[in-house]
Design brief:
217 residues, mainly alpha, Endonuclease Iii, domain 2, Endonuclease III, domain 1, 2 domains, globular, DNA-binding
Amino acid sequence: MAHYSIAAVYDRLYQHYGAQQWWPADSAFEVIVGAVLTQNTAWVNVERAIDNLKHAKALDARIILQTPIKRLAQWLKPSGYFNIKAKRLKHVCRWYVSHGAYATLRQWETGKLRESLLAVHGIGKETADAILLYAFDRPVFVIDAYTRRLLRRLGSIHGDESYNDLQRSIERGLARRRDKSRLFNEYHALIVRHAKHSCAAKPRCETCVLQRGCAKK
DNA sequence: GTCCAGGGTTCGT
DNA sequence: ACGAACCATGGA
């Protein structure tokens, strides 16, 4: 079977789908909120929850911290797991405010920022890396189930690597590219975009973007 | 009715 | 170190 390099897969995806313009948010803080709310949840439902926060003028770390957990959970209801996510949002906001918000955090070194995020209850590696990349513009590759599945089927990776190993492997595969933040930003967004692509024809949808003649978007 | 979505924690083995 | 149950809504 043919093996595609990590870089080649990106080129094909970009060629097929074009720039994805992620993350859909008006501010860095909104990215952070969205990153927590989208955990194992369809984005359309996250948008509803964020709209609730906006309509209540509560898309603000200090306001969320002052909001009773019960009311916060009601606003988050459309995004699912609302009781858990209400607590997680509070934890993230406490972290955000206590460290001086974006103005201070944006000056932190990436490794320190990542460790700090991972110490927040409710933020795992994927969410932390999504925040680093999409809220803080750091060159960190986000590993999710789609990434693993796609690159395994294309023979670009073995597939059973740990999160950190796979991340290093992919970042190494793109080491010669420049503008890493923009590249990783688009790559992850393209993988998510491609996961939604269903192609009835063979070969299967995970590989058809690499074939000529598939015009489906 | 079933499956799954832009995961993480907790608790068994 | 790895697996499974748990969290919960809404669209396909």
